[in-house]
Amino acid sequence: MLDPEVIRSRIAAALPGADVQVRDLTGTGDHFEAQVVSVLFEGKSMVEQHQLIYAPLDDVLKTGALHALALKTYSPTQWQTWLARQKK
Fold it and tell me: With contact defined as beta carbons under 8 Å apart, do 46 and 71 qualify?
């Protein structure tokens, strides 16, 4: 069973300065959702953004300790656009 903080800290270490939030979706410690806002995502496709997040989690993904990770990724520009749409 993984602690959401372990996942959050690994992502944050790989993406310095990123805003990273992780939550356990099922309470079983193997299905999570991560929301990440990083300047490193600027100009990258969604696939490239997700690859940056999966890389520091490769070992727990391979062992099955982390079974599922739903990702919501945004560059700061994308995040501001998303926030503006929520206010409408």
Answer: no
- Strands across the sheet containing 68-74: 19-24, 31-37, 68-74
Q: What are the pLDDT tens digits along the chain (88 aa)?
A: 899 999 999 999 999 999 999 999 988 888 999 999 999 999 999 999 999 999 999 999 999 899 999 999 999 999 999 999 998 7
Superfamily of domain 4-87: BolA-like (3.30.300.90)
